[in-house]
Amino acid sequence: MKKANVVVVGGGQMGRALVGGMLASGFAAADQLTIIDPNPECRQWWAQQHPDVATGEQVRDHAAGTDVFLLAVKPYLVPDVAAGIAKTVDRPTLVVSIAAGVPLKTLCDHAGHQRVIRVMPNTPSLVGAGASAFCVAAGVTDEDCQWIRQALAGVGTVAQVAENQMDAVTGLSGSGPAYICLVIEALADGGVLAGLPRPLAMTLAAQTVLGTAKMVMETGRHPGELKDAVASPGGTTIAALKVLEEKGLRAALINAVETSARRSGELG
Ligand SMILES: NC(=O)C1=CN([C@@H]2O[C@H](COP(=O)(O)OP(=O)(O)OC[C@H]3O[C@@H](n4cnc5c(N)ncnc54)[C@H](O)[C@@H]3O)[C@@H](O)[C@H]2O)C=CC1
Ligand SMILES: O=C(O)[C@@H]1CCC=N1
Description:
Blueprint: E1 6-9, H1 13-25, E2 33-36, H2 40-49, E3 54-56, E4 68-71, H3 78-88, E5 94-97, H4 104-111, E6 116-120, E7 130-136, H5 142-153, E8 156-160, H6 166-174, H7 176-193, H8 198-219, H9 223-230, H10 236-246, H11 249-267
Parallel strand pairs: 1-2, 1-4, 2-3, 4-5, 5-6, 7-8
Antiparallel strand pairs: 6-7
The structure holds 1,4-dihydronicotinamide adenine dinucleotide (NAI) and (2S)-3,4-dihydro-2H-pyrrole-2-carboxylic acid (A1CAB).
Catalytic activity: L-proline + NAD(+) = (S)-1-pyrroline-5-carboxylate + NADH + 2 H(+); L-proline + NADP(+) = (S)-1-pyrroline-5-carboxylate + NADPH + 2 H(+)
Function: Catalyzes the reduction of 1-pyrroline-5-carboxylate (PCA) to L-proline.
Protein name: Pyrroline-5-carboxylate reductase
């Protein structure tokens, strides 16, 4: 199903990140994609940024010949959207939902079949550095599984998980880009406070996060060990680490992931 025709329902932040990443990776061509969004400003954004990608207001006008419906609307809208698709198509077409918290059972009940995949992607998919996990319902074929793996591998890393791990994935990597952006912004503020011009502070902050993540992944060394390698005895880093421990950075991040995961469960 490599050349699948995909209708993306919801052309907002995450739809843009995923489709942008799929186009950039070459996984999908513009003429295989249609974006459905009732918001005219959103369709205008697509027309300007991706003029070769078709847009429309209603799924029913674009459902013919569709191989995959990718649901990228807010979680509370997903049941109605899935039910609308079920009324429009007369065969069990693959439905992929990226909505936080919405369980496979709800998706299957409204889609009217079990050829359904639940995905939790994240926004760095836009630049090919996403982190996604997915789980599948009983009607999903090996070919469907391969399709979603290839689609997500084209925009970052991908893992298949049990459905009961999806809320945890949401709390960590789904919401995670927001935590890290906060960290980058705050690090840059610190640099400005210490006397750096804002653009340089932002570049140093972002590159430090990027480089550290790359080092963790490429060396396979424990982050604690890599942290120790930065902290000289009696030096600057250990003085700063003491502040972060006193201010509870670890606990704050652990609680953030746990709270997002719990919220994901509530959304369903
Ligand atoms: N933003 C993120 O970082 C992530 C979001 N998600 C999930 O992605 C989904 C979308 O989130 P965002 O893109 O952030 O929201 P968003 O608000 O940016 O985009 C949603 C889009 O859906 C459109 N829409 C509303 N009703 C519609 C309908 N009936 N048919 C078609 N389109 C309709 C809206 O006009 C809007 O453009 C959510 O379910 C969220 O849980 C998952 C992972 C990460
Ligand atoms: O905030 C949210 O609900 C979505 C799900 C994961 C990231 N953003």
